[in-house]
Design a protein that fits this description.
With 270 residues, this protein is an all-alpha fold. It has helices at residues 4-16, 22-25, 29-63, 76-95, 109-117, 121-134, 138-165, 177-181, 191-206, 211-230, 236-255, 260-269. Helix 9 (191-206) packs across helix 11 and helix 10 (211-230) crosses helix 11 (236-255). The protein starts with a helix and ends with a helix.
């Protein structure tokens, strides 16, 4: 029995070494090739997908606007400007105590709006035209004609600057009808602030007023300007810049001041 077992094993080996059984002892080449080709294709597809994702990310980073991109090395001026802008927005939101009915001073919103109307352009232009029609003196007509010129210049300059800046207010408040008529739809610069600054300077220079009236005139201009911050229509910097532009407009009107003869010619044409 022990001798017969090695003989049977040798026979089995000889049988398996025959040509018709050789394919059973060798691994399938097709499966290996298919597996290797599948692996190569999957690796190539993964590499292509990674390249496509990288190219898409590069394109998206190139298409992103500048304000959405991270600045790793901002300049000192940029840091200072952004800090001041953040402080301006924060302070303006805190001072917007009449921005809506739910605000801390929401009950005084109608009164603050009424104060703002006193610095609107439409009432001032209408009042100037009425006074010009009723005026009978040459000096009065000269002052009123230049005042009308100043009001028209104020509306055009402020509307142009607001269209260029397109800065919105601290609160999402829709402009009123009078604001649309004077194209005062954006925040920078504040049209009411520029107008009251120009008017107060104009009256202080060309009208003889007592000291209490001069003080009241300056206080009126300040109250109208900062009332726009209280109702949430403008930032603090919008009002301060409006005061500065109002003074510059007054200086411009003084440079192009129309004489009495020019005013009489324009009145006769009208």
């Amino acid at each position: 029995m022990p001798a017969s077992q090695p003989r049977s094993r040798a026979r089995d080996r000889n049988v398996l070494n025959r040509a018709e059984f050789l394919s059973l002892n060798q691994p399938l080449k097709g499966n290996q090739e298919s597996r290797s080709s599948g692996r190569k294709q999957s690796s190539q597809a993964g590499a292509a997908g990674a390249q496509n994702s990288n190219t898409k990310e590069r394109r998206q980073s190139q298409q992103l606007p500048e304000e959405d991109c991270m600045q790793l090395n901002p300049s000192f001026k940029g840091i200072a400007f952004n800090s001041l802008l953040a402080i301006d927005i924060c302070m303006s939101k805190r001072l917007g105590v009449c921005a809506n009915r739910a605000s801390s001073w929401g009950g005084a919103r109608s009164m603050i709006n009424l104060l703002g109307i006193t610095g609107h352009g439409i009432p001032w232009i209408a009042g100037t035209l009425i006074c010009l029609v009723k005026s009978s003196t040459l000096a009065g007509q000269e002052v009123l004609m230049n005042l009308l010129l100043a009001l028209l210049l104020d509306i055009m300059i402020v509307a142009g600057l607001q269209k260029l800046a397109k800065r919105k207010g601290p609160y999402d408040i829709n402009p009123g009808l009078l604001d649309y008529l004077t194209m005062d739809t954006y925040a920078f610069p504040a049209g009411h602030a520029s107008r009251v600054a120009m008017l107060s300077k104009f009256f202080l220079n060309h009208l003889v007023l007592a000291i209490p009236l001069r003080i009241l005139l300056v206080l009126w201009a300040l109250c109208v300007g900062f009332s726009r911050v209280m109702i949430g229509r403008h930032h603090i910097t919008d009002v301060l810049s409006g005061f500065a532009f109002g003074y510059l407009q007054f200086r411009l009107v003084e440079l192009i001041w129309m004489s009495s003869n020019t005013c009489q010619m324009l009145i006769s044409i009208w």
